[in-house]
Design the sequence.
């Protein structure tokens, strides 16, 4: 069985770096799952999602001329979890709203933290210099 773009395979995580995870595929070849292809949401630390030795389903997204294989866990899950019909639109809208609310809260928290830090370095809000 040759490794072809678009095929889904089972693999084993053999190594983790800050930019992705190396996955051993059938026939002994190894591919890379870039950190952006691990999950649908933002992945800050890949170790929160994967460990060496994990069995994962991956989709082959590219094969370079030099033999490097690009893999995606996110795209392997995408098609198998997509509802065939029905209320898919409602669910995606709901999850978008949830994601947006979470993003806004995190942004406000970061901004207030940044303002507090900046104000304390400048001497506070109403500090007067004499």
Sequence:
């Amino acid at each position: 069985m040759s490794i072809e773009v678009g095929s889904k395979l089972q693999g084993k995580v053999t190594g983790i770096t800050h930019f992705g995870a190396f996955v051993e595929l059938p026939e002994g070849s190894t591919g890379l799952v870039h950190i952006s292809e691990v999950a649908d949401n933002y992945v800050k630390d890949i170790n929160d999602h994967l460990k060496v030795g994990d069995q994962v389903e991956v989709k082959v997204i590219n094969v370079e001329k030099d033999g490097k294989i690009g893999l995606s866990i996110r795209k392997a899950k995408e098609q198998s979890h997509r509802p065939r019909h029905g209320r898919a639109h409602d669910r995606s809208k709901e999850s978008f709203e949830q994601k947006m609310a979470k993003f806004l809260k995190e942004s406000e928290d970061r901004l207030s933290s940044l303002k507090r830090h900046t104000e304390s370095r400048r001497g506070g809000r109403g500090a007067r210099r004499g």
